[in-house]
Write a structure and sequence with these properties.
The complex is a heterodimer.
Chain A: H1 7-20, H2 23-43, E1 47-54, E2 57-64, H3 66-85, H4 92-109, H5 114-133, H6 138-167, H7 183-195, H8 203-208, H9 216-235, H10 240-259, H11 263-284, H12 287-318, H13 334-348, H14 354-368, H15 372-399, H16 412-430, H17 432-436, H18 451-471, E3 480-482, H19 486-527, H20 530-533, H21 542-545, H22 549-569
Helix pairs in contact in A: 1-2, 1-4, 2-3, 3-4, 3-9, 3-12, 3-16, 4-5, 4-9, 5-6, 5-9, 6-7, 7-9, 9-11, 9-12, 10-11, 10-15, 11-12, 11-14, 11-15, 12-13, 12-14, 12-16, 13-15, 13-16, 14-15, 14-16, 15-18
Chain B: H1 3-24, H2 40-64, E1 65-67
The chains are: A mainly alpha, B mainly alpha.
Chain lengths: 573, 76
């Protein structure tokens, strides 16, 4: 049997090297580590490894099967692409955080039990907070606090759920959870849904991701929500409510994207929308739907990274991120425009791009399963996806009115990373069998390139494009912010946390003051026994109450002599 | 001729070709009946786009969109 090397350990081992090395050596480690991790993922032998006993529960530190292999492959792949994109960055802290974050994600997808998965999730939570903070702005700092608050909440729910499962005697292995597991089931589902950014607890994503550094956002978009989808596939397949939740989520993200002016926030809303497809796939629960959720997660990681890299390239080159400040960049940034459009075609499901071969698995599964409403909502969300990421954003950024911007030259590694993702998007679109062969529930007998599917997709896209052209005047961004569900609890939670902190501080002050008063009284007495004898005396005065040094010595000598005499009388000497 | 008009003509051409092709090609026998209606997805694309934009704009006017100044960056 092949020896097992956990891909996460490769990345964790690289982190201290990145801290110690500089220049080319550090860059070599940053590129080599994900490739080695990918080799470890591809070479991992199937089965359960690292089984340890913890208080009667068997923990499986590594489980290798087709689902974990699929996610392991794309996680290590996107870590490599992200490393290439960020190769010009010289922030060791951010680079270490991204390695640890990716390692946490790999820890989750190779975990065979809930406790191991929980450890991986918490590792991701801390590392991703640092990535958000490396955005460097005040907005990033505040968004980071809100981000970690939500993830700590998710972690607490998961932990409580796992504890309840444990106490009830149920196994902790990552298998479909029985709905009669009671409160533990609900708490775990709640924790995972927060990590999946399901509305109304999704705003941590659209709040924090756009504030992270240009390079850090790429990996953020790939890991946290996808590990949640992975856990949903493992533990909650066929929970039909999730089909509806996912479908509504898909439309929700598309609706809010209409209102967005910030290009990265617009793309963040489309992460919510695309995750909705995957959640719906899990809820439908058939083999086609679960394969669709896994395949769409794989595709989404690639094209969303490409789109965010394109948006990041625009930000890096122009220093601007609002649609109202951008326009006419296609002439000065033709390569970035082309690569962005490849990502846009992919997410929109244009034939020959990867979205075309992954998204329909879920929509077809909804249709086959008789979930007509879900199918309709997902179709409308497809329209919204093409409208925003395929038409609105590129039109107003690259083709709209020229704002006279003079973008600076981009590092070649950024273009190389975008090219890698673009090649992957097109490659999977042209050869879908490569992806289908790696899906967790074979055989996949879905044929994406039927005349029916191609023509219906072309019609959907053409109808959307025609409507956009007619309405484009009213679709330009406005210098506004969009209120989301987080506005409902941001202020109350902030006030509650602030109140708790202030209350604790006051309690501390009161305690310290009380202790000081008590100590002062005791100190007075200790300093002079006369204090006890003269309770009505004025406040302690050293000159008046303290014994002269000579008298003190006499008393000490008298005491010692008395002690010696007493011992002598007892016959001790 | 403005580029938008040329694009619209090109889109109309694509729509016409796909519409005719959909009539000529026997659709697959799966899914609901509307999948067999020629041009159905064209209409859904057009109407869905309009519906999304109209609905979103309405929500924005109802208070979801606020001036950027109303929310300073150091707010909680």
């Amino acid at each position: 049997m092949q020896p097992l090397l956990h891909p996460a350990l490769v990345l964790l081992a690289a982190a201290p090297l990145v801290a110690m090395l500089r220049g080319h050596a550090r860059r070599a480690v940053l590129l080599a580590a994900p490739l080695l991790a990918m080799a470890a993922a591809l070479g991992a032998p199937a089965g359960h490894h690292g089984v340890v006993d913890l208080a009667g529960q068997s923990l499986v530190l590594v489980r290798v099967d087709p689902l974990s292999q699929l996610f392991g492959l794309i996680f290590t792949g996107i870590t490599f692409i992200g490393a290439v994109y960020a190769l010009h960055v010289d922030r060791g802290g951010e680079q270490i955080a991204t390695l640890v974050y990716a390692a946490g994600g790999l820890g989750v997808v190779y975990a065979g039990d809930w406790i191991t998965a929980f450890v991986g999730l918490e590792l991701m939570g801390v590392a991703s907070l640092l990535i958000v903070w490396f955005g460097g702005s005040v907005r990033a700092r505040m968004a980071g606090f809100r981000y970690i608050f939500m993830h700590l909440t998710a972690g607490a729910l998961l932990f409580a759920g796992i504890a309840l499962l444990w106490s009830s005697g149920a196994g902790l292995s990552l298998e479909p959870l029985a709905s009669d597991a009671g409160l533990g089931y609900s708490l775990i589902l709640g924790g995972v849904l927060i990590n999946a950014a399901v509305p109304p607890v999704h705003a941590w994503l659209t709040d924090a991701y756009p504030e992270a550094s240009v390079t850090g956002t790429i990996l953020l978009s790939a890991f946290t929500t996808k590990t949640a989808i992975y856990l949903l596939i493992r533990a909650f397949p066929g929970v039909e409510a999730l089909a509806w939740v996912g479908a509504i989520m898909a439309v929700y993200g598309a609706v809010f994207a209409v209102l967005e002016n910030d290009i990265r926030r617009l793309l963040a809303y489309h992460i919510v929308s695309q995750i909705g497809y995957m959640v719906a796939g899990v809820g439908i629960g058939t083999a086609l739907a679960l394969n669709g959720a896994a395949a769409h997660a794989f595709s989404h990681i690639l094209y969303k990274a490409l789109l965010l890299m394109g948006a990041g390239a625009v930000m890096q080159a122009t220093g601007r991120r609002r649609l109202t400040e951008l326009g006419g960049l296609a002439r000065s940034m033709p390569v970035v425009t082309t690569l962005y459009l490849i990502g846009a075609c992919s997410i929109s499901g244009v034939p020959l791009f990867n979205g075309f071969v992954s998204k329909p698995l879920i929509v077809s599964a909804a249709s086959d399963h008789g979930l007509t409403g879900v199918e309709w909502l997902l179709t409308i969300a497809s329209v919204g996806t093409f409208l925003h990421t395929g038409l609105k954003l590129p039109y107003f950024t690259f083709f709209g009115p020229d704002r006279g911007l003079a973008p600076v030259r981009l590092p070649s590694n950024m273009i190389a990373a975008m090219s890698l993702a673009a090649v992957a998007c097109i490659g999977i679109g042209i050869v879908p069998g490569w992806l289908y062969a790696r899906l967790p529930l074979p055989p996949v007998d879905y044929l994406p390139y039927t005349a029916d599917h191609v023509f219906s997709t072309v019609q959907l896209l053409v109808g959307t494009a025609a409507a956009f052209l007619l309405m484009r005047g009213g679709l330009g961004g406005k210098p506004t912010v969009t209120l989301d569900t987080d506005r409902l609890w941001r202020r109350p939670i902030w006030n509650a946390v602030g109140g708790l902190a202030r209350g604790t501080a006051r309690l501390g002050h009161a305690w310290r003051a009380g202790v000081n008063i008590a100590l002062a009284g005791v100190t007075d007495v200790l300093q002079s026994p006369f204090h006890l004898a003269t309770p009505a005396a004025p406040p302690y005065d050293a000159d008046r109450h303290r014994l002269p040094i000579g008298a003190t010595v006499v008393w000490i000598v008298v005491g010692i002599v008395g002690l010696v005499l007493a011992i002598w009388r007892q016959g001790g000497i | 001729m403005p580029i938008a008009t040329r694009l619209l003509i090109a889109l109309a051409g694509c729509a016409a070709v796909s519409f005719v092709a959909e009539i000529l090609i026997q659709p697959e026998e799966h899914g609901a009946w509307w999948h067999g209606v020629a041009g159905f997805d064209l209409a859904i694309g057009f109407a869905g786009c309009g519906l999304l934009v109209w609905g979103s704009k309405l929500l924005g006017q109802l208070g979801l969109q606020q001036p950027e100044d109303d929310h300073p960056e150091d707010e909680p």
